[in-house]
Amino acid sequence: MDIALTGVSVDIAGKSLIRDLHLEADSGQVVGLVGPNGSGKSTALRCVYRALTPSAGAVYLDGTDVATLTLRENAQRVAALTQDNHTDLDFTVSEVVALGRTPHLRGNQPLSATEHALCREAMEQTDVLHLQDRSVLTLSGGERQRVFIARALVQQPKVLVLDEPTNHLDVRHQVELLSFLGKSGLTVLVAIHDLNLAAAACDRLGVLAGGEVVAAGAPVDVLTTDLVRRVFGVDATIVAHPRTGVPQLLYDLREKA
Length: 257
Ligand SMILES: Nc1ncnc2c1ncn2[C@@H]1O[C@H](COP(=O)(O)OP(=O)(O)OP(=O)(O)O)[C@@H](O)[C@H]1O
Hints:
- InterPro entries: AAA+_ATPase, ABC_transporter-like_ATP-bd, ABC_transporter-like_CS, P-loop_NTPase.
- Residues 3-235 form the ABC transporter domain.
- It holds the Pfam family ABC_tran.
- This protein is 33% helix and 27% strand.
- The protein is of the alpha/beta class.
- Helix 4 packs antiparallel against helix 5 (141-154).
- The chain starts with a strand and ends with a helix.
- The radius of gyration is 19 Å and the shape is globular.
- The chain has a single domain (3-251), classed as P-loop containing nucleotide triphosphate hydrolases (Rossmann fold, 3-Layer(aba) Sandwich), CATH 3.40.50.300.
- The longest helix has 14 residues, at 141-154.
- The protein has helices at residues 41-48, 71-77, 93-98, 113-125, 141-154, 171-183, 195-201, 219-222, 225-232, 253-256; strands at 3-12, 15-25, 30-34, 56-61, 64-65, 78-81, 159-163, 187-191, 204-209, 212-217, 236-240, 247-251.
- Adenosine-5'-triphosphate binds at residues 12-13, 15, 17, 35, 37-43.
């Protein structure tokens, strides 16, 4: 399923958060949104998972304007991992993961054996199966993040929208999650701060600054010394990864001191 944001703007309380955004992800592509704090990444993602309605423009899934879908229909296609994923509810890990099936169930319908197997598989993939009977309230930040990723996976979406999914994750789980996304076959839109992980994990990047897309394309074309200085205000030496060839940034901390 492909995604297209065409001319998307969001104005709230007289403030322009994003302006005339054009972004596309082909079916099965991982597209990263990068940009400084407050540049509009989360706002753009919210328009895709329908937490916000654009003031102008539209979001299309396989050519269908998402505004014409019911929220249930949208949730059957798009799963989101948001930045404000917290819970006060004393649910076990397996109960939270099972909630991902909600868009596919009617009323109080219990989960089928296949759905239980799906939940188990998602917990295995995200390395939380050993925590399945624990209350989510007792988990560390990274463990909880992985539970919410499992919940998104059991939703069996075609599109996965992730806002800073590597927050709280240790390096092994960051690498595992991002490699999984590339192999998943899902169309992924992911906001990510770590430019090196973004370059390694994403087929394409959209760079946001001040609510506008200032560059878009393959990481090797987008991540230049000049762009990193202009958009992020830092000096970096950019090298090609010796094995994969993807651009990797080396930050010149000592030169600045
Ligand atoms: N509901 C709102 N009302 C007013 N301003 C808002 C609202 N939501 C977001 N903003 C502002 O819009 C701008 C873009 O916010 P957004 O959260 O999209 O940025 P971001 O790129 O995801 O930032 P970060 O990297 O810090 O998560 C920010 O200046 C933010 O303060």
